[in-house]
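INFO batch 0412 | record 1 of 1 | parsing
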Amino acid sequence: MKVGIDISAIIYGTGVSNYTQELIDHLAPMVDLKTFKFSRYPLSIMEFLWNRLHIINVEIFTGGIDIYHASDWTQAPSKAKKVTTIHDLSPFIYPIEVDPIIVEVHTAKMKWAVKECDAFICVSQSTSADLRRLFNVHPDKIHVIYEAMPSNHKLVPQITRYSNYVLAIGSRQPRKNIERLKKACDLIGQKLIIVGEGSEMGYVTDQDLVNLLAGASAFVYPSIYEGFGLPILEAFYHKIPVACSNTSSLPEVAGDAAIYFDPYNIDQIAKAITEAINNKDKLVALGAKQLAKFSWDKCAKETLEVYKSLVVDKLSTTV
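INFO prediction complete | emitting tokens
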């Protein structure tokens, strides 16, 4: 079985980049893998050719393949069985919070994905439900395969000048719910450090993020909507108690290892933060057990099973 995977997303340093890199690293020993990216061409050109005009088969770059696993941004024509991973559907659920160009690109990609893809991999049950609801994709085509914590985030904390604070990762997008979190921390007199676009810390390096996690009294994820919720696993890894929203994918990721709250209720957020801090030992132990449920080996093996099922279907159709 020959598999072609578009790895163009790797260069951006995002969660999707990490997923793509980890997937190919763990799939490579298992299958004849043909990766390709478009460093020589602006992604906008490939997006136009593939999403808008939908011309130039991917086999031009890969040669003959049995499976084509598309990128997060583009859906090329192909004679192979087609797979795409859905990380989240925020451009369709919260379009007003997303750059209009991103909404346009994802809309064009999903038009072809829904029409042509033989399988969709969703990173959570929550995202799977969104895909069925928004695009009427048949459940038989959807496979929920959890991602895991990126290997390059497993860094050793260095000495930090920060201590006794609550840490959050978010942006100015309203769905990240940072304003309510600020009010909740004010209620209980907790210092809050926020990492992310538009925050006082801004974007930080992986090492700086690990340092900040190591010094935190608790990690709080107040988001109203997430496709997966990777920072929760990072907090588990670095033995930090977690309080998070009870919405979207977050309960799937955190399991019984977090204190939950209604993200619209400031009093509940404040109470959950206090409870997380006061129950650190218990939550850290539960977090270690929950973290062990997510691995890239498992992700790769389950992804390979999706590929195999499509090849079997293809062979049975042609016999």
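INFO post-check: The longest strand covers residues 81-86.
INFO record closed
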